[in-house]
Each structure stands twice: as C-alpha cells, then as structure tokens.
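An instance noted here:
***
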Amino acid sequence: MGLPDMASFGNRASRLTGGTLHKAYLRTLGPGSVSSLLKIALDVAYVLLALITGVLLLLWVASIFIPLDNINVTVSDGSDGRQMPLTRPLLLFGVGAVTAYFGGFLVILRGLRKIFRTLTLGDPFQPDNVRRLRQIGLILAIVTGGVWAAQAAVSRLAPGVMEPQGVSDLLTPVFSILVVFVLAEVFREGARLRRESELTI
C-alpha cells in the first residue's frame, strides 16, 4: 500500500478549513446578515418610539384643557428648593419640546430603517440613501440646536430647572452630524460609480 498523496490531502483540508472559516464569519449584507438583525432591532425601536411619541402628543393636546388652578412645581437649584406656579404656556412648552424631541428621532429611525432595508437586500448604493442620510443629518442638527436653545431659554426663565449646555457639550452631537453628512457623500460616490459601471456594461 503506497503512501497517501500529501498534496491532495493538504488541498482537501484547506478546502474544508476554508469553508468552515467562511461560514464562521457573519455576513454584513444580504438576508440573514448583521444588517438584517440590525434592521429588526430598528423596527422594534421604531414601534416603541412611535408609541411614546403618540402618548406625548395626546398629553400635549390634553394639556390645553387640563385645569391648572393652584398647581405649583418645585424648582431646586442645588442648595434649596422653591415653588413656582405651573402655567399653561410653561406646561405646553415643556410637553411640546419633549414631543418634538422624540418625534425628531422617530423620523431619524424611519430613515435608518429604509437604509438598512437596502443593506439587507444587498444594494446599499442607491440615490435614495444619499437623500435619507442628508435628511438624517439635517434633523439631527435641528434636534441638537433645539435642545441647546430650549435649555438656554429655560435656564434664564426658570433658574434651577436645568443648566444650559456649554460649547463642549455640543462637540459629540456636531461630530455625529458631520459623520452622517460624510457618509452621505460616500454613498453618493458609490451610487455614481455603480451608475457608471452599469452604463459601461
């Protein structure tokens, strides 16, 4: 009986090992990939955020009719607390600001769900994704500016309720906004290259 063909044995082992390692790695695009799992997580978060936003919207409408006679809120500035009357404009502003905050992130999640749907289909470089990313960046900028302005206004009108944001607090949101707009340009370039490739073929 002759010796086994070591080259053939090595090739067979390499094919088996390569196939096992290939299956061990998770795919990032297409059905059953990491993108599809993230799409499911985004769907769940979107439904929960939609419910929260709906409840807040109903609460804002109810705030128009809720009687506020002799209702006070306690404001603390860190050392002691003081009471101030809860007025209807203050209540409407507070509930409306929170509702707008959650509503903005609801729109952002809707855009992300559509983007991850294209990732799940394995076709991310679509012109619509460029528009969606720019919309996400714009809404994120509006939400960031709105939160900064609201906190600055509340800190002046009702000292002790909250502290205004400093410039350093805006570094992370501004960086995130810039990253989103850069990603939009990357997707735009990818869509252009795909279009040129299709025309060439």
